[in-house]
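Quick start: read one record
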Amino acid sequence: MEGGMEAQATPFLSLFSAVSYGIASMAMVFINKAVLMQYGYSMTLLALQQLVTALLIHFGKVMGHTKAKVNMTTAKKLLPVSVFYNANVAFALASLKGINIPMYIAMKRLTPLAVLVVGFFRGKGRPSTQVSLSVILTAIGVIIAALGDFSFDIYGYTMALTSVFFQTMYLVLVEKSGAEEGLTSIEIMFYNALISLPFLLFLIIATGEFPHSISILHEKAHSFTFLVILILSLIMGIVLNFTMFWCTIVNSALTTTIVGVLKGVGSSTLGFILLGGVQLHALNVTGLAINTAGGLWYSYVKYQQKKRIPRKVLSEEELVKNKV
């Protein structure tokens, strides 16, 4: 992919790319949750995912399918971005060990609120009334849902909120520095994987996961079911990033964001049924409904705002900045 590109595609391709991204994104949450229910070492799991990403992209380069290359100046520029991104993912995975999927998705919807607050203090001005009300409604939904969460886990909630913080810092830093400008999604993934591995190895040792995580992984590998789920988790990271980028190219960055919100609705619904860990309570269900309504309202308002802006050619940076 080069420079800037305009979102053009047949109706079928547009729909297929959006559905593919929604399915991949939804599947990733459940697969990671399934792995962590049997293997609680989230930092080691993330390190393995990044290692597989780097190896597959390098293999693609050797086979002539990708052109990912490493430049030290670019790597230094991407270093803080990569640290925040991986911290976001690491704490998100850690939170999945303690909270159920519906609450995890509700907590992650707090990111727009955090971005708006940081933007306000950075002098970006006050957002529109509807944007402000929609993100406040989302936050109120989380509070109500938490009050009715019988499986309340302070560790899981703390990890989820920390993940929201790092995701916010990642998005703000990308916007402010333009660190990813001019790079293709494959190159960003390759740099991110290579830069993150030393950082993750340090965390694995510092948190005491090593060497227990490796020995337990070796023991668990004898289980065919666990091995299948683990392999799916390792390759789904690349599948998710590819479908996200594809959806954004053939549609728009806004479409990808809205698909993410709609995916959250489906994931929350399935989360009550699959993998267990959810005890129904009126407050919890009401809070999640309010949170979802806030997310849908926010997406609708942003869509209306986007319609009023003249269509332009999107840069590669704009196409990939919606990572979750």
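The two ends are 21 Å apart (CA to CA).
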